[in-house]
Amino acid sequence: MASDDNSTSDEPGVYSLPDLINRARSEYHRAVKYVDPKVREAQRLACEIARRVVRDIYRFLASRNVQIGIAVIIGLLILSAALAVLSVVAYLLFYNRFLPDQLTTVPVHLQYGYGANCWGLTSLAHTNLKTLQPYDISLSLTVPRSPANLERGNFMVAVHLLYNPKLSRPSTPWQERLTYFAGADGEPLIPTESDPGLAIADKVVMYTATRPALIPYTHPVVELASRLLFLPYHIFYPHSEATTLKIGVVERLAFPRAGILPNSVYVEVQAGQTLQTYKASVTFSAQLGGLRWAMYQFWGIPAFVVFTFTFWAVSMSSTLTALAAIGAWINCPEPVKKVRKEIQEDRKGKGQATIKAEGEHNEDGLSDTERTFPSSSKQPALKFEGRIKQEEGVDDSVAQLVNVPPAAEADDEDDGDDFGDPPPDYRDSGIGTSYDDSVVSREGVKRRRSGQGLRRGG
C-alpha cells in the first residue's frame, strides 16, 4: 500500500496541497526577483505618492476650518433641498389658485310642468371661475329631430347668472359636493314651486343674456336618401336621430377684481312646454391671455422648471440674506473701553479717585510700597511711606529725607546704551543709596596711618 501511495505522489502532474502552495510561493518569489528595478522603483514611487496624497487629504479634512466649511456646505444643501420642495408646493398652489379651468361644463336639468316654458337651475359652487378672466358662455341643447321640434321653428333661450348674498362660496371639498347636490342655496336642485320666479326671488341677477335658436333644416329628399343609406345604423343606434344645438350666449364676459362670482346659473328655453329635449348643459370657456395663457400652454416641463426655479431662487436669496444679517448682528463686537480705577491721594490726605487707562503709567515711576532703608551709624534709618493711605486718621505725608549729606551720583555702566524708552516699571525711591563723605574720610585716614606705620617699621 505504501509503494502504491509513493508511486501515486511521484506521478507527473499530481501534487498534494502543501506542495502546490510551496510551488506557487516559489514561482511568485522567482517572478518578483526578476522584475525590472525600474518597475520596482516606479511601483514604490506610486505607492509613496498615493500614501502622501491620502495623508494630505486626511490632514486637509481633519482641519477645523475645513470641517466648518463642510458643515456649512451640508447645511446649505439641506436648506436648498427643503426650499426646493417648498417651491414645488408653492408653484402647485399658485397654479391652482391663479389659473382657471379652460373649459367648465355644468349640466342643466330642465323642468317641465312649471310655468309657461321649461327651465333649469344649477349650481356653480364647485367650478373654478376666476375674476378678471374673460369667458365665453354657451348653451348646448340635445334634441331629437322629431316632427314637433322641426315644426317649432325659431325659439329663444335665456341665461341668467345669479348670486346669493346669503351663501358664500364653499372652502372645502365636502362643502362643494354638498352644494353641488343640494343647490347653491342649500335647497334641492329640483324646486317644488310652480312659479320659476320663486326659485330666483332671493338671488341677485348679475348678468342676463338671450339668444335665438333653430333646429337645422334638411331637405326631405336628402333626409330620405340619408336614412336609406344609413338604415342599419339608425336601426341599431336610434339616438343618431338627435342633433345638438350649441348656442353662444355670452362673449368675453369678465368679472371685476373687487366683484363677486356667480353661485348659480338659471336657464330658460322659451319654446313652451312642447319642445322635446334629451339634455342640456352650460359651458364656460376661458379666453386665456398673458401669464395664464403661457402657464396653460407650457404646463409641462418648461413652465414647471421656470416658475419653480424662480420661487426657489427668491426664497434662497432671501433666506441667505436674512442669515447673513443675523450673523453680522450677533458677531458685531461692542466698542467697550476698558479702564482701570486707581486711587491716588494727595500729600494732605484728601483722597481723590481718578480713572486711569490701561496704557497709562505713573509719571514718577515710584512704587507705592512702604519701605525702610538703613543710614550711617550716626543717623537714623530712612523711612519711605506709600502714597496710599492704609487707615483713616494716620498722617500720610510723604517721608522727608533728612540729614542726608550730599552724595555723589553712582556710575551707571549702561549710560548711553538705551536705544529706546522701555516701558516704565515700578522701582524703589532710591533711599539709602547716597554717598557718605565722612565714612570715606575716616577710611582714608586709616589707610594713611597704616602706610606711615609700615614705613616706620621698614
Automatic annotation (TrEMBL):
A Pfam family the protein falls into: Seipin
Membrane topology according to the record: Multi-pass membrane protein
Keyword Transmembrane carried by entry: yes
Keyword field: Endoplasmic reticulum, Lipid metabolism, Membrane, Transmembrane, Transmembrane helix
Cellular component aspect of the GO annotation: endoplasmic reticulum membrane
Alphabetical list of InterPro entries matching this protein: Seipin
Biased composition (Basic and acidic residues): 357-371
Residue ranges, annotated region (Disordered): 343-458
Transmembrane segments: 68-94, 301-330
Acidic residues composition-biased segments: 409-420
Record-level GO BP terms: lipid droplet formation; lipid metabolic process
Predominant subcellular localization, coarse grouping: endoplasmic reticulum
Location of this chain's protein in the cell: Endoplasmic reticulum membrane
Entry protein name: Adipose-regulatory protein-domain-containing protein
Organism of provenance: Apodospora peruviana
